[in-house]
């Protein structure tokens, strides 16, 4: 398998080079040169596999044997040995049509651990085997940062700098990042929002001289390995249902911000997994809902919501989808992205909008509805959803038919977002790992949202 850019101006490369490149050197996003098709027979065979073995099977289509099988197996098994549930991503049935896939069983209680435990180990492996310097630069609305730091803290040959929006992440998210005392970790708290943080790091990654000088590596979903790692649980969830009952297509409702998690679902569907609708759940920051419903991609006003990890306007992975929507035409993608930069918006016509509708439905969920869902299901079934997951459940109620089977992704544990849960007078016990954080000292540097200030911090830390 070769890896190419959505903008077509990067020489094709192999799996590890694609992993190290992060953002494509022409400013586009890395994608595989083709999407492998998994036969029905293979899908049947995979049903019985453990999560880890399923991941090994899926990765075998993408890694070109650049990592010897036994090494990859160790990386995968080590990565999920830190999870609290043997199944890695256990599936819970809530009612006849609704299943919840718990993606929060990793060390930082959010879905990001699934990919980032693995990527942390992979970076460590590549640092040793290829003698590469690994300086990770990432932006977070709270969960990616915590998971990435946890994945590489204290690891030799790796440094990590994470930008988060100052006072716009939950208290638990802030503590998870800033109580880490290892010397290889730098937390920058930026006076701005997540989009500001993401734009800053994307500009630095696009400056190829700067990127190479400081050996910058990506852990955000701009990195294709994030996307690929996240496809595994779509397959895994589907197989758990298919083993229990005859099932045709399954819908997935995915709380969405940067379009990474749901793009992994799109990839799984293109690979041949029988997915019906990919239901895109958002909050008041609903640029993607407006795109799916009206064909207009235009950032709106920024809102701070009960689901702060999805307080995102400009969705990083949208460009990957534009590539497939436009018949894999890199020139068209370049033209569209240039137009977006110049005009601040993009619009697609009825024909392409029809194509979008073949795969996606979308629902933006207001704060009051989000809290109502948490309260309702807690009373009905005793299951406590975090606010992001609750948006996914509301979107399931709105978009998935009564006779259709739907998996909602539980993207975080409710303890991470107690600020919202407390508003509906539900008292939840905190897991010990989270409770302990409140007694630890915090280390972080608060900076202005200013490129030169950021560059100085990075030169000092990575230089
Ligand atoms: C808890 C939670 N849910 C949902 C999302 C949205 O996922 P994505 O950015 O992959 O669309 C995020 C952040 O990305 C998150 O942290
Ligand atoms: N919600 C994310 C935002 C970054 O998304 P990513 O998938 O590109 O890493 C977060 O929690 O940081």
UniProtKB/TrEMBL annotation:
A Pfam family per the record: THR4_C
Enzyme Commission (EC) number:
4.2.3.1
Q: Which reactions fall under this protein's catalytic activity? A: O-phospho-L-homoserine + H2O = L-threonine + phosphate
Q: Which InterPro entries match?
A: Ser/Thr_deHydtase_PyrdxlP-BS, Thr_synth_N, Thr_synth_N_sf, Thr_synthase-like, Threonine_Synthase, TrpB-like_PALP, TrpB-like_PALP_sf
**Gene Ontology molecular function:** threonine synthase activity
Pathway recorded for this protein = Amino-acid biosynthesis; L-threonine biosynthesis; L-threonine from L-aspartate: step 5/5
Q: Which UniProt keywords apply?
A: Amino-acid biosynthesis, Lyase, Pyridoxal phosphate, Threonine biosynthesis
Q: Which sequence ranges form a coiled-coil region, renumbered to this chain?
A: none
**Residue stretches making up the Tryptophan synthase beta chain-like PALP domain:** 89-330
Q: Tell me where in this chain the Threonine synthase N-terminal domain is found.
A: 3-80
Per its UniProt record, the required cofactor names are: pyridoxal 5'-phosphate
Cite the NCBIfam families for this sequence. Answer: thrC
Q: What does this protein do?
A: Catalyzes the gamma-elimination of phosphate from L-phosphohomoserine and the beta-addition of water to produce L-threonine.
Q: Which family does it belong to?
A: Belongs to the threonine synthase family.
The protein here is known as Threonine synthase
Which species does the entry assign this protein to? Paenibacillus konkukensis
Query: What is the phylogenetic placement of the source species in the record?
Result: Bacteria, Bacillati, Bacillota, Bacilli, Bacillales
């Amino acid at each position: 398998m070769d890896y190419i850019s959505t903008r077509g101006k990067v020489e094709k490369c192999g799996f590890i080079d694609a992993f190290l490149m992060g953002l494509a050197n022409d400013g586009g996003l890395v994608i595989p040169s083709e999407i492998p098709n998994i036969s029905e027979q293979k899908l049947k065979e995979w049903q019985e596999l453990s999560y880890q073995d399923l991941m090994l099977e899926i990765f075998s289509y993408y890694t070109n044997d650049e990592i010897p099988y036994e090494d990859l197996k160790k990386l995968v098994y080590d990565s999920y040995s830190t999870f609290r549930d043997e199944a890695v991503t256990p599936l819970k049935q809530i009612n006849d049509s609704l299943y919840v896939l718990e993606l929060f069983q990793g060390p930082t209680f959010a879905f990001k651990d699934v990919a980032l435990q693995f990527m942390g180990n992979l970076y460590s492996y590549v640092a040793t085997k290829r003698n590469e310097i690994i300086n990770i630069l990432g932006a977070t609305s709270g969960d990616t940062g915590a998971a990435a730091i946890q994945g590489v803290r204290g690891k030799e040959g790796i440094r990590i700098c994470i930008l988060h929006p100052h006072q716009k992440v939950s208290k638990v998210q802030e503590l998870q990042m800033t109580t880490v005392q290892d010397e290889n970790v730098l937390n920058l708290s930026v006076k701005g929002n997540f989009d500001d943080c993401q734009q800053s790091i994307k500009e630095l990654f696009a400056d190829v001289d700067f990127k190479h000088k400081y050996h910058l590596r990506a852990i955000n979903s701009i990195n294709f390995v994030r996307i690929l790692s996240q496809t595994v649980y779509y397959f895994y969830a589907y197989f758990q249902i298919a083993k229990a009952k005859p099932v045709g297509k399954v819908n997935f409702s995915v709380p969405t911000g940067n379009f990474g998690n749901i793009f992994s679902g799109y990839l799984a569907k293109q690979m041949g997994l029988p997915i019906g609708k990919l239901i895109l759940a958002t909050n008041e920051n609903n640029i993607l809902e407006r795109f799916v419903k009206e064909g207009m991609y235009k950032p709106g006003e920024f809102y701070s919501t009960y689901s702060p990890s999805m307080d995102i306007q400009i969705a990083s992975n949208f460009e990957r989808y534009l590539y497939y929507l436009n018949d894999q035409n890199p020139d068209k993608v370049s033209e569209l992205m240039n137009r977006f930069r110049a005009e601040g918006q993009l619009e697609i016509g009825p024909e392409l909008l029809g194509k979008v509708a073949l795969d996606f439905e979308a629902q933006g969920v207001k704060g009051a509805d989000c809290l109502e869902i948490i309260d309702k299901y807690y009373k009905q079934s005793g299951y406590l959803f975090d606010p992001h997951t609750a948006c996914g459940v509301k979107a399931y109620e709105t978009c998935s038919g009564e006779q259709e089977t739907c998996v909602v992704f539980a993207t975080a544990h409710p303890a991470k977002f107690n600020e919202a849960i407390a508003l509906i007078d539900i008292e939840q016990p905190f897991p010990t790992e989270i409770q302990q954080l409140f007694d630890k000292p915090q280390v972080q540097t608060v900076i202005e949202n200013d490129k030169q200030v950021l560059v100085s911090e990075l030169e000092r830390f990575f230089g």
